[in-house]
Fold this protein.
Amino acid sequence: MAYIRQEMSDQRELVKQFSYEVRPVEKGYANRTLYINLNTLEIKEKPVSQKMKEVFTGGRGICLWLLWNAINENTHWDDAENELILASGPIGGIIQYPGSGKTTVVTLSPLTHNVYDSNGGGFFGPYLKFSGWDALEIQGKSDREVIVFINGDDGTVQIETADDLPTDTHILSELLTEHFAGAKENMRNISVVSAGQGADHSPLGGLNLSFYDNKLGEIRLKQAARGGCGHVFRDKKIKAIVVQYSKLNASSNGPAKPELIREAGRRINREILEMDAKQNNMRTLGTTNLVEIINHTDLLPTENFRYGRDARAKNLSADYWRTAFDSTSQDSCWYGCSMSCAHKVNEYELKSGPYKGQKVMVDGPEYETIGGMGSNIGVFDPEALLEFNFYCDTYGIDTISMGSSIAFAMECYENGILNQQITGGVDLTWGNSDAVYEVLHQIARGEGFGMVIGRGIREMKRIFNEEFGADMQFLQDIGMEIKGLEISEYMPKESLAQQGGFALANKGPQHDEAWLIFMDMVKNQIPTFEDKAEALHFFPVFRTWFSLHGLCKLPWNDIIPEDNHLEKEPAKVPAHIRNYLDLYEGVTGIPINQEELLLQSERVYNFQRVFNLRMGTGTRVHDYPPYRAVGPVTEKEYLSRVERYDRDLREKVGVDPEGLTLQEKIFTLRRYRMSQYEQLVDAVYKRRGWNQNGVPTLETVRRLGIDFPEVVELIEEHGG
């Protein structure tokens, strides 16, 4: 789709060029990382030692180690010494197994003020590695807008000025892809990382990673959106990072035992082709298949997580997206991914903003966008949702944090904490699409009340309390953030395990660490505290492994073998774990078992917890959810599930609800549920090998081999 846009000018200047020897990847590793300092214009390569591989494996692990050595406990997210680090992983980039194209981004977050990792699809991570680099580490700030161009074909890295270029992603990514490709047949060899003008102004800013759709001749986008990495990107005055690599083949990863990779690929591709239409329909619907299921099970966040279902959700469910999605496109965000879940809508005509009247392609929406920018703000119009989706993407704004932030502001508006005098005339009533358009465009322009909403829930709580006199306890109760990060779009009220999955996550409440809500609430597979603690040990650790290796989690559990129910622990999809053992051995040549796989992740998971400790968090006080994630805050909420809550009081608490006022019921239930949460935290800390303050013990870090002197010192300071 050719957008109305400007042409590339000749005004750009080459600021710095660096040449390097292009060497083949060996057994999944390029064995070096690329360091760029935008202040000093230093560009150099750093070795990836065998010790780094043994302790940190790759991907997120190596990124965390690089950041650990680049900053100190006093570093702020917008200091020049903060880094933005991007990496794939040793398995990343294989083309025989689906979901092998992920890029992990690590930085200090402007939202959480702590170390954060986000991940996205697209071609960037594999192309970066095949160009010769296990990670790209960018430090410093430029005094001008710049592009970083990595040419993996001729072995050069260039920094060039980009003051003349547009910022919004849908224009910039097309412009740069065409420019660096030189010819249409080469566009498949380019991947662009960018963030739009919304990321200039808001800590909700995310990154867009591009891939080229050969069938349609279009630039497509995936997002590493969470935690504000796009805001860091723009604070450093990076307009784009571009990588070019044209020599991709089945051996680009330098695998040690390619036959193991091929056989694992044959197994799962057969499953996808035979089973997907009977299971989650990822190839037709992607993650939108969840909407109807989540709504039916009372888990769809509605009106700032007050409720878990709404009859209007059918407007946003599979029936609509089945016809809206373009069925002719190539929906794989990396080569060889037969799951093909990256769906899109063509020819959507924009109704608002700077591109009003233009027909655009909308990549998505995904389930999280539907939950965040749809049901949670009371919008059940799919066309409005497409508009939100497009503008969030091109402006570089995370739809989860944006949706939850708007929902919080809408509830404050409903409760009289905000009014149109405060909001500058923006009517923040539930379901008001025009108000949401205005908020998004204000953030992009850097003006108006949108800039308050664009600061995220934690900052809004402070502002509404200090400037408008709102009750802080009420704000804390309804503000759906933990550690400064807005909660992913699943209602956790009735799932104790999911409350822990969100609140105990290292980086904040992102579902990619521990999505346990079905196991706990729907299937009742983890009934005891010990069962929940075991799940909250295994799943976060296992899911960490994907980010070490450049892998997507969807092929693990969104398609399952037909006989999976016969396995001892079907929720873990053991056959697919066995596939990953084969992939690891196939790439690296090193045989491992499940325990060794988990040990790789456990090292990095605990190191990240210690990193949190270094930055001033990482203890129990930071591991609590807002009460709305646990139970009903308001009378209206209690009454929406009155039979369930009265039954809980009677059967679990041992109190007759008939003798209590509504407020007494809410208070009594709250005291019980929070006591349950405290017991869960105790059990999880014990299972993870942490003390009762949430600090990994010396025994744990020694067992894991991460007992570096500075780690030991930190733990000793905190009684570990």
User: Anything to note?
Assistant: The longest strand covers residues 207-213. DSSP finds 29 helices and 17 strands in the chain.
